[in-house]
Prior knowledge:
The complex is a heterodimer of chains A (113) and B (110). Helices cover 0% and strands 50% of the residues of chain A.
Amino acid sequence: EPEVTQTPSHQVTQMGQEVILRCVPISNHLYFYWYRQILGQKVEFLVSFYNNEISEKSEIFDDQFSVERPDGSNFTLKIRSTKLEDSAMYFCASSGEGATEAFFGQGTRLTVV
Amino acid sequence: RKEVEQDPGPFNVPEGATVAFNCTYSNSASQSFFWYRQDCRKEPKLLMSVYSSGNEDGRFTAQLNRASQYISLLIRDSKLSDSATYLCVVPRDSSYKLIFGSGTRLLVRP
Lengths: 113, 110
């Protein structure tokens, strides 16, 4: 069964450092997303990406965040200068034509110290 | 009114019980709805999609009431493995953004 894969599963970084979270969406999907979940809180939308550009972003997704699809398979989330409050589980998701159901990767747990 | 609202629970039920969760949504134009299941520290996994009045898959039944703007999830014959958090998810109309409820926690005890 096709699945979304994310690497790394866990990343620890020092405050102020840059991190790149990587995702390989399901191969024939067209819409890609990043969500995050702070421990004990609900899943929050960060950004959606379609046709090689951002289609929507939340107010969480400020200038410190960027996304890229560097090739035909990877989809990355970069945080330029991490803050303590960026500590969360980051989920990548993708959906097919019609942007119906989204399928999630297993997540990257980011810990900023 | 919150975009998607759920009773946080927890619902603590014995094995074999029937349990129902409700979810209300604010956007009357929403056309599709989803229930996801999330285990502790894992990713949300799609459980059911609802596009019309309802959907049934084995022990799970989802019903949609557009007039009252709520979606329900019914689980019959609960299993221990059903213990999880159930997330009501509504796409924001004309965008590709999923709005998640806070989730309802279910604990099924032996």
